[in-house]
Automatic annotation (TrEMBL):
It is found in: Nucleus. Component of the 7-subunit TFIIH core complex composed of XPB/ERCC3, XPD/ERCC2, GTF2H1, GTF2H2, GTF2H3, GTF2H4 and GTF2H5, which is active in NER. The core complex associates with the 3-subunit CDK-activating kinase (CAK) module composed of CCNH/cyclin H, CDK7 and MNAT1 to form the 10-subunit holoenzyme (holo-TFIIH) active in transcription. GO terms for biological process: nucleotide-excision repair; transcription by RNA polymerase II. This is General transcription factor IIH subunit 4. One of its GO terms (cellular component) is transcription factor TFIIH core complex. Belongs to the TFB2 family.
Length: 309
């Protein structure tokens, strides 16, 4: 989701499909890009992330591959009561459970030495499915931010927009790079700067200013937590201003009408478009007007009738 390393080809395709289905990523001209919902997903606790992913995975396989939902849920709950480090046999598993097992193996919830192995080992992610889940009943429809109580803060935000991140986690560094221009990297720290260009790029990818500020607050270094407010007001205000700057224009598709032979023809079409409520813009001096995409067909039929008359 954050542009990190690629996995096996089969795993990548399966995960990409589920990420698109759950609207965590969207496909575009440059491939898959993270969405607003996807960035919010990265702020959730690990157990909530796993359950959200599993719920969307079950929706895909039951609708597109004919998997039996009751069998899948039964097997998932069985895994959650397994013992970490103990191996289990595949004997007696149904065809649906076999298919589910191979997918869980690709997602990291089950370990097998190789695909044909007759024994498998549930991982900690699978065992924590029930005991560690805190997903609300509405999480299949929306994603809400939950604080990471178990994760110590590592981000120091300075008033000059410089970011110091005391971490060696590739995931956290990749998340920072979504809205921050990284400059230096050390064994246990990275240094970057929040710029107008980096924020605009994040906004283009669907990440909002409030989500960026929430990430900085959730992962603020313990020394930052002593400040009130936690994030310097100059940084907070500027990030929000950059978002407003980008959103000050709204784009709407339309059709340009030009080359009218007389001012009376222009006025007739303009009045008709105004009466329909589909006129977006007009310039009587140059005999130009823009009609919305929705009203184009009706205005064009009116203009043809006028020309024929």
């Amino acid at each position: 989701m954050v542009g990190g390393g690629q996995g096996e080809q089969g795993t990548e395709q399966e995960v990409r499909h589920i990420l698109e289905h759950s609207n965590l990523m969207s496909s575009g001209g440059s491939g898959l890009t993270i969405t607003t919902r996807g960035f919010q997903f990265l702020l959730l606790e690990r157990s909530t992330q796993v359950w959200f992913f599993i719920i969307n995975y079950l929706q895909v396989v039951t609708a597109e591959r004919g998997f039996n939902l009751l069998e899948c849920l039964s097997y998932l709950f069985q895994l959650s009561f397994s013992t970490l480090g103990k191996d289990y046999s595949r004997e007696g598993m149904t065809e649906c459970q076999e298919g589910l097992l191979q997918h869980l193996r690709m997602f990291g919830l089950v370990y097998q030495r190789k695909r044909s192995s007759r024994r498998y080992y549930p991982t900690k992610l699978a065992i924590d499915l029930v005991s560690g889940a805190r997903l609300s009943s509405s999480s299949s429809q929306s994603v809400s931010v939950a604080p990471r109580a178990s994760s110590p803060g590592f981000v120091v935000m300075e008033t000059n927009f410089r970011v110091l991140a005391y971490t060696d986690s590739q995931l956290q560094i990749s998340i920072l790079s979504l809205f921050c221009q990284l400059q230096y990297r050390f064994p246990n720290m990275v240094v970057g700067t929040i710029t107008r260009e980096s924020i605009h790029q994040a906004l283009i990818n669907g990440i909002t200013a409030e989500q960026i500020l929430s990430f900085l607050r959730l992962h603020a270094h313990p020394q930052m937590l002593a400040n009130n407010p936690i994030i310097p007001p100059t940084v907070t205000d500027q990030i929000r201003l950059w978002e407003i700057e980008r959103n000050r224009l709204q784009f709407e598709e339309g059709v340009l009408y030009s080359e009218f032979l007389s001012a009376s023809d222009f006025d007739k079409v303009k009045r008709y478009a105004e009466d329909l409520g589909v006129l977006s813009w007009s310039n009587p001096g140059r005999r130009l007007m823009v009609v919305t995409q929705y009203g184009h067909e009706e205005v064009r039929r009116f203009w043809r009738r006028q020309k024929n008359n």
